[in-house]
Fold:
Amino acid sequence: MKFDTPATQNPIDQLKVVGHGVDRVDGPLKTTGKAAYAYERHDVVRDAAVGYVLGAAIAKGRIGAMDIEAARRAPGVLAVVTAQNAGKLGKGKMNTATLLGGPDIQHYHQAIALVVAETLEQARAASRLIRVKYERAPGAFDLAAEKDAAEKAGKLAKPDVVGDFDGAYAAAAVKIDHTYRTPDHTHAMMEPHASTAVWEGDALTLWTSNQMIDWGRGDLARTLGVPKEKLRLISPYIGGGFGGKLFVRADALLAALGARAARRPVKVALARPLIANNTTHRPATIQRIRIGTTADGKITAIAHESWSGDLPDGKPEEAVQQTRLLYAGANRLTALNLVELDLPEGNAMRAPGEAPGLMALEIAMDEMAEALGLDPVEFRVRNDTQVDPSAPERRFSQRRLVECLRTGAERFGWQERHPRPGSRRDGRWLVGMGVAAAFRNNLVTDSAARVRLDAAGQVIVETDMTDIGTGSYTIIAQTAAEMLGVPLAKVIVRLGDSAFPVSAGSGGQWGANSSTAGVYAACQKLRDAVLARLGFAAEGAVFADGSVTEAGGRTALLRQAATDGELVAEDVLEFGDLDKKYQQSTFGAHFVEVGVDAATGETRIRRMLAVCASGRILNPKTARSQVIGAMTMGIGSALMEELAIDQRAGFFVNHDLASYEVPVHADIPIQEVIFLDETDPMSSPMKAKGVGELGLCGVGAAIANAIYHATGVRVRDYPITLDKLLAGLPGSA
Structure:
């Protein structure tokens, strides 16, 4: 099915099942421990040996020599895999560094060996017997220093300029020019990267924790040098990913190599201290923002430049992309600068680009509002636009930012906010309110599904779509139930298997909308097959309550269509160019109230509100869970999360959950979520968009703005820890 014209009335619009806040269909399995995760496939692999990964102890250089003999002779050891004995290996298209290092080392904790043994303890003990002689090379680990060096060498990216930024900025009545910093972040998902591998001849089955089945299958095939059709990836349940499991990682490759070497099934999980340095992370940024306005607060010039680092051949953190679209202004400049660092690979983490970009931009908007003497909400409203500022002929398909801001302000009690910072006190607590706009582009990806109807009237949906804890099982079941007119209990959903049709996968806020659109297409084809089998006319036919009724009044039970054999339909939803004709984005507003201890600088979040305009919400219950989880993640970004770099050795020091702080239940206040009633026919037949990343975008800045309003101390360097506040607190002098 081709989606190249705006959606019209269709069966989803009945909203008998879709649009309702139903419980997760996979919930009972997860709450009773019956959901099978990658490291726990005892149901299909009963004799798996255990692999333990050894990571490099240097950040850059070479392995001069490696002695594995003592490890090979250790009790219980079945195999030791290294780059020297693994055979010829390629590199996946989506991996910046090789997954098995040696002799060259590209980053700290790059995998250099796998020890396979009967037990984890035996494998771990044997890994300590491997003797490695390193030839260390100097590396670049300091983003600020490398940025300065790049500027001196004239290696800056050519900016993207619209209009005459320099002239407009120079002529602006009011202007600001500030620099903001965000640190490196790790995904910190609950389930570590894990895989269980089994070879049958030259065919590999891999139970793994991966968000994008087809991507992973393709890249693993390239790395192993085997035909793609010889690989099967299975990932029905994933304990969180946040972008860290978009691409195949060392656990998958090493489990496959270990199983081949040991000639038996092998399972590998990356130990928590290995994840931060071995896998990917959100890279740190340095961002400079300049805004110029008229005296009455209309933006005439806006510039956003960002610097981030990555390994050679890596990519920058696209922190400026929201600035190209969020606010009006004829004269614009954006620039993405990438400097080479020898830190572990930087890559996607929940809302890549917009999350760190809005952490800077939405502080700058508050600073500009203050310079103008305007309310922060009013300043944002004043600079709304209904068209792409860089291409005014291109309209937004839906843009309700102003409504999000107005609705949020009213619900949150923004009118009670005193404009002067530090003006409200509650005992020892300085109390402040902050706001930030939320923005995330609407992305769509072609997605396929297979739908079966059996003689019992059950509908079985098969697609390689994954569920990373977001509720994919449930919204896919709701889609099929709505399309075929059956109760939710009559739908069985099978996900995360490369034997199924290729879906959009889970990533970039595109998964829910795209995958359900693929199911919609397959269900539409199944509806046609049912009508043909029953001899019913298609025009005016109604699928409801487990029955099919044609316009003429004839009725049959849905299951009657499968009496003579199961009906199967498969289709792919192919997206056309509507996203080119119309700018498709999601919008929101975040409001936060904080208390800051006047003596210690300790910050406590008191309450939070998110207002989201994100197309049709397929399941408000699971969507709310996504948003409050994102808001919680935003608290971490604002107040505590930071991968600390050892600048001498080039690695993240706090590489476990004991020293890398993430929010806990005690940190989280009342969180309220409002979804505006919206459909976007330009987006998909579902008229939906994504919301899971929008809930994060802007949260950090809203907290930063609230802290400033409480204390009068402006911090432009995340995380906002108490040491950055103390000197400016009342009475600190």
